[in-house]
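Handout, page 2. Input:
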Amino acid sequence: MSDAAIDPPQADRKADRPLPGGRVDTWRHPAAVRITHWLNVVAVVVLIMSGLNILLAHPYLYWGVRSTFADPWLSIPPISNWLLIPQGRNLAEARNYHFLFAWIFVVNGLIYLVFSLITGRFRRRLLPTGGELKGLGASVAEHARFHFPTDDHARAYNVIQKLTYAAMILVVLPLMLVTGLSMSPGFNAVGGLLLEMMGGRQSARTLHFISAALIVGFILVHVGLVIWTGPLNNMRAMITGWFTIQPPGSTAGLKFRRKPPPEPGDAP
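Output:
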């Protein structure tokens, strides 16, 4: 989702800085958030590209305990080498990359989660209120029109952003972790019950793929909205912590100027 949202005013935040033209610089991301964000970017890219290499060792997905070769649930088409880590088909090396960056991703994510819980950031930014949930329909309509305020309304996530981020953190990412662990031979030696709960190794592999696909979809939408709502401003916020609030009534995206109605007496 778009990054055009800022924590509500807090006593421990840096004060807003007035700018010319009715704009305001507001403090958005503390250092812990910025560092964990960029570490996640690197980890997720490596995980996706090495995961594709692992998937291509057997590009078919099934449900249950066994591989029913004659009737796969999904067949994966060929994938270009430039999308793989390492380049070319190399299952052993791809697994090394995948396992290493999986633990980097998990530890980094736990640091972000603990920081967000301790500081109250998780509650303020990601948990929608009852009133916000009642306005879900209006928020869906705004998104459908690509209407994203960049004025003072951008100080808080809308309800769709909150629900999406919360779902990723509380549902999709844990599913990715649990299914990955359930397929690990080393973990199966002490936690084989987890694999049974997943419905078998092939079900765990398919669920792992589905959760990865959801993460890729989230990233595509997130990056698209970052570009739509102002790439320079959003990137600056994630690098320096400061985000610029535009004058009242400002919105993101293309601006279409309506042709004024003709004056009385004008020739057609």
